């Protein structure tokens, strides 16, 4: 038997297997939702006949759906109608896998369940550290999850509730517009407000700073032009209503560094709030996601002005593809585990 996991997001579909293989297919579901079945068919065209699937999702929040309930039903139906031979099961924030009918009926547990699968998985595979924090810095969002004895401290939460307690920050290192991170910059001895327009994203900033590959989020640039460092520089200049030729290279450096610092401070402040709310959780941090390269700085800043003990920081993998595919790995793992239990 071969086990695969799918993480169906709003901008990308990630899948992985238990041999440590992980892949990603860019797919903006809000633009072409009816193409989801054909994308799933393409991805699974060479899957072995004995493949079995676990599925988690966040794409139900896409604004092509009237509601999250409608989104869950559409995604579940698409998987069931396209891939019935692989007997897909769906992960819920109860920590269980279920069949399609239940996934639709109890849609509020199916929606945005990937954070829960990630947390459960990371501590299930680590017998030495069963409690700590998950810091998952993605392209679009960041999850800050306290875990005790292998289980998220507060389970069955939806994203609305998680925004309230700070465990979800809707900001990441890729698709997030720069104007969503800061509104003012220091430039040429003055403080200026930036254009509140989606001229550049965090991917441009980190691409300019050479902290991500040039092809990172290559299908989602703000102006539709290539995901190159040169074009990122032009997009960053637009933030201050300038052409790149009107700015010195060190000024684009400065703008980018200020945006990066603001992003790190934003996530660090939220992490500090989560730490204070859960002093019972040991300072063991499991880091992952596309933005895991920022995690250690975020953790250090969150702990800098406190009496917290020195942390232990454990990155999931040095492989960026694996690091961003943990929810898919998780549901593959739990699907295999369930089949073993059933026998």
Question: How would you describe what is shown here?
Answer:
Helix content is 37%, strand content 19%. It is an alpha/beta fold and 343 residues long. Helix 9 (249-277) packs across helix 10.
Distance between the termini: 12 Å
CATH superfamily of the domain at 2-116 and 322-342: ATPase, nucleotide binding domain
**CATH fold-level assignment of the domain at 2-116 and 322-342:** Nucleotidyltransferase, domain 5
**Assembly of the depicted chains:** single chain
The best one-word shape is globular
Residue stretches low in confidence (pLDDT < 50, at least 5 long) are none
Strand content: 15-25%
Could you give the topology of this structure?
Blueprint: E1 2-8, E2 12-17, E3 22-26, H1 36-43, E4 51-57, H2 68-82, E5 89-91, E6 97-98, H3 100-105, H4 107-110, H5 114-124, E7 132-137, E8 142-148, E9 151-152, H6 159-165, E10 168-169, E11 184-187, E12 190-193, H7 202-208, H8 229-238, H9 249-277, E13 284-288, H10 295-304, E14 312-315, H11 320-323, H12 326-342
Parallel strand pairs: 1-4, 4-5, 7-13, 13-14
Antiparallel strand pairs: 1-2, 2-3, 5-6, 7-8, 8-9, 8-10, 11-12
Helix pairs in contact: 1-2, 5-12, 7-8, 7-9, 9-10
